[in-house]
Structures are given as structure tokens and as C-alpha cells.
Design brief:
The complex is a heterodimer of chains A (139) and B (36). Chain A is α+β, with helices and mostly antiparallel strands and 139 residues long. In chain A, 54% of the residues lie in helices and 13% in strands. Chain A has helices at residues 2-8, 22-25, 53-70, 74-87, 93-109, 113-121, 130-135, and strands at 9-15, 33-37, 43-48. In chain A, strands 2-3 form a two-stranded antiparallel sheet. In chain A, helix 3 (53-70) packs parallel to helix 5 (93-109). The N and C termini of chain A lie far apart (36 Å). Chain B is of the alpha+beta class. Helix content of chain B is 31%, strand content 19%. Chain B contains one helix and one strand, in the order αβ. The longest helix of chain B has 11 residues, at 13-23. The radius of gyration of chain B is 13 Å and the shape is flat. Classes of the chains: A alpha+beta (139), B alpha+beta (36). Strand 2 of chain A pairs antiparallel with strand 1 (26-32) of chain B.
Chain lengths: 139, 36
């Protein structure tokens, strides 16, 4: 986890009692809250509340993928999303990562077969997830 | 046994934003109320 954070982010930890001014600045009302923010201070992804370590890592990697997607780095986003789906398949992040990996591939290639393949993949796993329902229109 | 890697936290948001531009990395802001 620490290696992933050090390699991909500038990590800032703010205790609410020591840095109360930071909470309204970033619209934070509750802890723990973790934000991914770009160099202009724009929020890209938000994780709220406690999660067990593997679920937190899944959400963090998902957020990194979404940050790449927002920057239109679709190939990097797909790699990140597929990494979550493959390495953390038991987490809640995996179904969402599967969905967004397909969207990222489509955005990178403009090939609609990427969406169809994603819809098909949801027939084999995460069938009861909201992401399977969202992807069902592609099959 | 490999040494455990520690996250290199800072507390200075504005300095981190400046570093973010140079390093072309996003910030990870962790808001906590836990004892530090």
C-alpha cells in the first residue's frame, strides 16, 4: 500500500484538530476521508469512512484509475482498472473496475466490441452488482 | 525479510500542490481524527 501511494501520489495527512482550515477548503465534513486531488486542487476522487485494508487499496487504485480517465489517459486507466479486477477480485472495487476497464478500452480505441466483451464478462462474475446491470445494455 | 516501506506523508498542502505540478503526480489528502 505505501509503495503504491509513494509511487503515484504526493501524500498529505491532515489531522482535523491541527489543520481545521483544510476541511472546508476541500469540502470535508467527516473522517476518515481520503481525496485524490490534481495539482490545481481539483478533486478527482473521494473515499469516505473506514475500510479494511484490501477494500481501501481497491478503492484507492480505482480512484487512481479514475484520475487517469479524467485526464483522458485511457490506456493507463484501463491498465489500472484491470489491475484492480485481477489482483483484488474479492473486493467491492473489482466489479466497478471491470466496468471502467471496458469503458476505458472503448474510449482509447472507439471499438464498441470492448463494451460488448465487458457486458459478456459480467455474465460470468459479479452478476448481482450494479455494474453488471449497467453493463447489461451492451450485450 | 524486506524492510517495510513507510508512506512519506507531509502536512503542507500548498507545498504539496507545488510539488504535484513538478512531479506530475496527484495529491493524496488523508483527513484523519485518529491519534498521530
Amino acid at each position: 500500500m505505501a509503495t503504491f501511494i509513494n509511487n503515484n501520489f504526493i501524500p498529505v495527512r491532515l489531522h482535523v484538530k491541527k489543520h481545521p482550515e483544510a476541511m472546508p477548503r476541500f469540502n470535508v465534513d467527516w473522517t476518515p476521508t481520503v481525496l485524490i486531488v490534481d495539482s490545481d486542487g481539483k478533486e478527482l476522487y473521494r473515499i469516505e469512512d473506514y475500510l479494511p485494508a484490501d477494500e481501501f487499496l481497491g478503492q484507492l487504485q480505482l480512484g487512481f484509475g479514475h484520475a487517469q480517465f479524467t485526464k483522458k489517459n485511457f490506456a493507463d486507466a484501463e491498465r489500472q482498472f484491470r489491475d484492480v479486477a485481477e489482483k483484488l477480485p474479492g473486493t467491492d472495487a473489482a466489479a466497478e473496475a471491470t466496468y471502467w476497464a471496458g469503458v476505458s478500452r472503448y474510449k482509447a480505441t472507439n471499438d464498441a466490441s470492448a463494451l460488448k466483451a465487458t457486458g459478456q464478462a459480467f455474465k460470468e462474475r459479479y452478476q448481482n452488482s450494479i455494474w453488471a446491470k449497467k453493463a447489461s445494455i451492451w450485450t | 525479510m524486506a524492510a517495510e516501506v513507510a508512506t512519506q506523508w507531509t502536512e503542507d498542502v500548498d507545498q504539496a500542490l507545488a510539488e504535484s505540478k513538478k512531479a506530475k503526480k496527484a495529491l493524496l489528502l488523508d483527513f484523519t481524527a485518529a491519534p498521530m
